[in-house]
């Protein structure tokens, strides 16, 4: 406004109106004009400066606005992409949810060495297996529907893992099984699998903790499977499973199928439990024969009004060998006589009424052959059974014989019963002696075989394996790091457990 007024004053100045008035202009008027001119110039410069600043600020704001607009456009595009991706994921999620619901299944793992099926069902063989399978399937489905609110599960997998031979022996020898049929468990398993297509019966055979290892691996796999909506384990008899299950305690789909009373360590497990007493035994298999049904693998028993036992090998069937079959006479009582007619003497071992005497012809008793076994230390590592020192002369003789034949003795042939260990037969590149080796020669060959490292090392569970599983001088070995068994140096070679080839275990007290 001041500049405007100054301009008006300048325009109204007498010196600018008429040339004739110039003569009357004074010096002061000129000075005033110059002053006003300078003021106008200063005002113009300030205006230009302000205009420049405003223009610069405007450009900066405009650039910033364009940047924000570009960012906004990018965000809009990103949101659009995420929305599309979200809709796609929703469709996939709904698909998988539908798939898991329609293909949901239940999985039951049974450690058959401890969770034993009812002996009456086992005694029925295949028919008993079929009955057990149908009853187990019905009870599991009923439990899932009533207790777990799982009504849409039609596929129920049941996997039984056990040592069939070991269980059969335990049931027969303890007198638990109503029949002395050592093949009853196998027959039961066949019927069990045939009755239900999703049921399996796996015989892992003898060996240390074979069933436990398989059970745990199956459990770990099914625990991660989202289609598995119900996972049950029948293993409450073993404290080891309680520790194993500790890391899964927050998984609501896990249940415990209780057969025998749960072991002590299961007290702290918070899993829901259920039982099916119509299918499983509620008591452990006794380790000793019961008084009601005394059937033992080490005793062949003759029973009428009285029970008498005779040492002998495990019977393959309820019938007695011909040599032990009693001869029954309807004549009067006889007394034992020692005669000389061809050495045929008899021993009267008992009476049933006054008209019957059981006669058993004397036979030469053969010493029972000790079954093969494997030793393990406290760390579950294989320990070789100590061997007595071999006769140096025998070792030298065998070395000379092998050198003369151009081949070493076949370990598998000579250290197995009747040479059955070697499958190569006549095609074997090692020496098969025509004559049976003597005990000193077998001992020498065992020592030589022990120098060969077993491929399975300290985890070998083959009771018939004659190879070496550790250095025979684990401490202070002469060969040091050059020893074939160097990686086993320092290993504890004190055995604490003996596991027989039939799965029987014996704890060794040192």
- The CATH architecture designation of the domain at 102-274 is 3-Layer(aba) Sandwich
Count of runs of 4 or more consecutive helical residues: 11
Q: If you average the pLDDT, what whole number results?
A: 78
- DSSP strand (E) fraction? 5-15%
Largest beta-sheet characterization: 6 strands, parallel
Principal-axis shape equals: elongated
CATH topology grouping of the domain at 102-274: Rossmann fold
Structural class determined from secondary elements: alpha/beta
Give Rg in angstroms: 48 Å
CATH secondary-structure class of the domain at 102-274: Alpha Beta
N- to C-terminal distance: 117 Å
Provide the helix percentage: 25-40%
Q: Could you tell me the number of beta strands?
A: 15
Order of strands across the main sheet: 3-2-1-4-5-6
- Given as residue ranges, the uncertain stretches (5+ residues, pLDDT < 50) are 15-20, 290-364
Which H/E pattern describes the elements?
Answer: HHEHHEHHEHEHEEEEEEEEEHHHEE
Organism: Cercophora samala
Protein name: C3H1-type domain-containing protein
Keywords: Metal-binding, Zinc, Zinc-finger
Biased composition (Low complexity): 1-11
Topology:
Elements: H1 2-11, H2 27-102, E1 105-111, H3 119-123, H4 126-147, E2 155-162, H5 164-173, H6 184-195, E3 199-203, H7 210-224, E4 228-234, H8 239-245, E5 254-257, E6 272-274, E7 299-303, E8 307-311, E9 327-328, E10 347-352, E11 356-360, E12 373-376, E13 382-383, H9 392-405, H10 411-414, H11 439-449, E14 497-500, E15 505-507
Parallel strand pairs: 1-2, 1-4, 2-3, 4-5, 5-6
Antiparallel strand pairs: 7-8, 9-11, 10-11, 12-13, 12-14, 14-15
Helix pairs in contact: 1-2, 4-6
Zinc finger (C3H1-type): 404-435
Region (Disordered): 1-29, 310-343
GO molecular function, one term: zinc ion binding
